[in-house]
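Lab notes, practical 5.
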Amino acid sequence: MRFIPLTLLLLFFSFSLSAQWLNGWNQRQRIAIQENAGNTLNNYQIRVDLLYQTGMDPQFADLRFTTQDGTTLIDFWIETFQNASGAIVWLELPNLAANANTDVYVYYDNPTASSASNGPATFIFFDDFSSFSGWNSISSGVIQQDASTFAPNVVLRKTGACDPQGGWKSIGSSLNNYRFIGREIRAANFPDCSWNRYGLENASFNGYSLRRNADVTGSSEFGIERRNAGAASNATGPTLSQPRGVWYRTEIRRDCSSGRIQAELFNDDKVSLGLDNRIDNTYCGVDRIALRGGRDYFFDYIAIGQFIELEPSYTLEEILLSESQLRFFRWENKDLVWAFSSLDDIAELQLEMSPNGIDFSPLAQWSNPNSSQRFSPNHQEERYFRLAWQNTNGQWYYSAILAQEKAEQSWGKLHYWPNPSQANISIQAAWPAGRYTLKLYNNLGQLLQQNKLELSQNQRLQYDLSPWPAGQYRLLIEGENGIYQLLPLVKL
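Output from the prediction step:
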């Protein structure tokens, strides 16, 4: 068993609290994602709406997403974008701890980058029909690949007979909770069967379908129907404007734990046109896509991901520049020092301070900054610092966050092992019996978890890092007598 001296580790722990930087990209923006359902989520697909920023490729081809360490890439898929305006992007998040905030980064401003948008890597199931396999007929229904109607796009065509005939394809998994995402169109008048009907079902063809009266020139019914051995029942829904000859984006969302089933219709820019929302506990567990309804209608893509009713939410935080502009920002003894490679575009510079690494306020300001500067904060307590500068166009940018550690007290004879660890860390110290508080912080100084417990004298405790992604953390152990120790931890 190897004990790691705390004093030695603290010497190595005076590092920047910002994540590392992805080589080749000049700018990044932090996205703070909050889990809201009280569940740990793994490989969850979340929609993020991005606005175009100066330096981005107009078609968003230079986007990359990473975990909070700043370099581990996250799979993503761009569903749609408007040139130099905005993009709707789906991220597959490796880990979201229950009720916790998780940071990811979006990188951009790399003129040599090509698009890394990847639907199959992002979703549980994804098909853009560039290849055609795995589709099976339902009765006399016909599902086929179509390379001519919307050339050069290759699409899927539901033709042949009317509902309940159609086709199905396995999604390769059995799901209780899911999100079905599609883009579809009724391109022409086929008056013999006017409804587009599709969704997810099980091997007995029980499940739920989105249904819309697609063969109209104005408004018509849209909503949800239950499928019992393939037959439709319990159809509901509002009347929405949905004329044929127009591409629509649709979603079906199902959370079996709550019984929630939703169908939503969007225009081609992903602006919602209407929603059918209800509780139905009849069927859970699906493993295949079923396309039924009328003829002919077409799909551009279909994607299947996870869904939970209280979905994660996100906040787009500050924009950060790489060291191509800010050369460095670091501690030298008790002084903060920094240097810029150029000040031509900087209208104002300020040093900001925070007691917690989240809520920053100006500490010092310069309207005519020098390329190299030094500042002594002269604070004894733990504080967090960052640089903020505004360019001549009014855009604010922010540096990495640096921490100033407060003078530490200790109980002595403290050991913790193993560190790094994939899960449990054992902590042993000569502390007295009493009440203690444990606070876990991420590498941006954000509080992730807080626990209160009672310890007996010299009791060994176990701390579990398994819910959290790989990275660097700090565990603050506080006693009711005011004595505390701060432990730098590394999760593998």
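Observations recorded by the TA: DSSP finds two helices and 38 strands in the chain. Residues 125-305 form a domain with the Jelly Rolls fold (CATH 2.60.120.200).
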